[in-house]
Amino acid sequence: QVQVLESGGGLVQAGGSLRLSCAASGSIFSISTMGWYRQAPGKQRELVAHITSIGGTNYADSVKGRFTISRDNARNTVYLQMNSLKPEDTAVYYCHANTRRSSTAVPTTYWGQGTQVTVSS
């Protein structure tokens, strides 16, 4: 059993900043990739950013230069610093963690419940 919990969403004006946090807990031996997806009303869920256990990162083109993903492996936590927010960033942001419960277990991806980010113009 693994739990994934996001926090930090809210309402912000265009040009402002938010910092999202996501902590994974439970039966975890290791976590490979952690990251963030988002889903706006009427649109498909899309990758925002992800980060590997050794710090390799990928970003959606739409957020490059504005968002920064980081992680604290000791706390099984991933962060998303969002700067220069735009109205088109408005979405529910979902955290995911790809975990293994032991060295021989198959990796499994767990998802948080989502946190709402709303950017006003």
Itemize the secondary structure elements and their pairings:
Layout: E1 2-7, E2 10-13, E3 18-26, E4 30-39, E5 46-51, E6 57-59, E7 67-72, E8 77-82, E9 91-100, E10 108-111, E11 115-120
Helix content: under 10%
Give me the count of strands: 11
N-C termini distance: 41 Å
H/E series = EEEEEEEEEEE
Helical segment count: 0
Radius of gyration (CA) equals 14 Å
Largest sheet: 7 strands, mixed
**Shape label:** elongated
**pLDDT below 50 for ≥5 consecutive residues: which ranges?**
none
Structural class: mainly beta
Average of pLDDT: 96
Beta content comes to over 45%
Please tell me about this protein's structure.
This protein is mainly β and 121 residues long. It has no helices and 11 strands. Strands 2, 4, 5, 6, 9, 10 and 11 form a 7-stranded mixed β-sheet that branches. A 4-stranded antiparallel β-sheet has the order 1-3-8-7, with no helix packed on it. It starts with a strand and ends with a strand.
Features:
mainly beta, single chain, 11 strands, 121 residues, 4-stranded antiparallel beta sheet
Describe the structure concisely for a colleague:
The protein has 121 residues and is mainly β. Helix content is 0%, strand content 58%. Strands 2, 4, 5, 6, 9, 10 and 11 form a seven-stranded mixed sheet that branches.
